[in-house]
Amino acid sequence: METPTLEKLLREAARDAALSPSSHNAQPCELALLTSDEAHRALAEAGAPLGEGVYAAVALDPARCLCALPAHRTEMLVSGGIYVEALSIALAARGVRADLRWRLGGVPPELVRLLAPWEPLAVLHLTPAPADTEAKALLPLLAARRTNRSPYRSEPLDSTVVESVRAARSRAFPESSEVCGLVTLTEPDVLARAGDLVRRYGALEFTHAAAWHETYAHMRFGPEVIRQAETGLPITHLLAKPLPGWQQALLRAVLSPPSMRVLRPLGLARSMAQQSGTLLERSGMLLYLHFHEENPSEAIQVAAGGRLLALWLALAARGGGLHPVSVMVQHPEPRQRLITELGLPPGRGFFFARVGVPTAELPPAPRRRNAAERVRTV
Ligand SMILES: Cc1cc2nc3c(=O)[nH]c(=O)nc-3n(C[C@H](O)[C@H](O)[C@H](O)COP(=O)(O)O)c2cc1C
Fold it and tell me: What pTM does this model have?
């Protein structure tokens, strides 16, 4: 039997990496294979050995990136790190070793120019290696993992599940365990205080005009639209239940930015924040990820995505669900309140989520099609 080429294996791995979670399901990552003469020249000039293997770049497509809030830059970098982690798992499972040659901030300018307008987050050197059995075991979890927004069972999570989340390590960014901190919160009084904070600040998600405008543009309403969607957030996933077409149409009208402005005095945003707070305090655990510094480098923010996917997969392996509540870390005031009122460590919070055993299973979220074919040769 013929051995598949590294390019073929990369294209196959791209299909698995496409299942990575990303903020608003924007799927901002693209993949390029650096095999043109020009790319080889740039690689050689930058000191990369060309004898063995191939080079590939993971990049952000600015056209797909969220930008309404400064915190969205972090979310895009973290989503990029998640993608690199998923790709590394998918490659290792297929017998391809992916060494991180350069990362955001250090990519040689000539390669940056060749990839423009994409913004390279990581340049990987791919070489053949024995298939990695641990990575093989993770492969089905890349497909099984979900953002589960259903209510969770309220009893505390089993301590082995909590431990597995704490122990999860990124394979693409091993240093991410040091550069970003993880806090797991299971005490009922802490969960109650966190629920209060979400009730107090959660409405910001709907009342911040620019952020809501962008979120709404990513929402998908209507059975046919949802079936065809390749990106974004189906309303049935956001509400974690099936809805007839007429209700979806009604919600499309009610949630539109102009109606939300008009309905604001009626307290719609407040009532949605109340529900969100209640769901949160009735979960088995809260998860908080933070950088130790207030202004970490962008490379550190990408690396953090590796740790996040590793722990998300560890949860998925044990039937645990995760539902981010990013509004609490997107705005300076709730971000600070989380620290002071929940007694969290100092530093910049970048991910806050409820975790638990979901009461409902959910279908997969939409994904961009033809991931293998979309790998661009540069
Ligand atoms: C950095 C980041 C932030 C996210 N924030 C939220 C959030 O605030 N609320 C939410 O419901 N989902 C959030 N999500 C989940 C995404 O919407 C989800 O990953 C995407 O819709 C794809 O769905 P899936 O995770 O089920 O594959 C976030 C995901 C990431 C990676």
Answer: 0.98
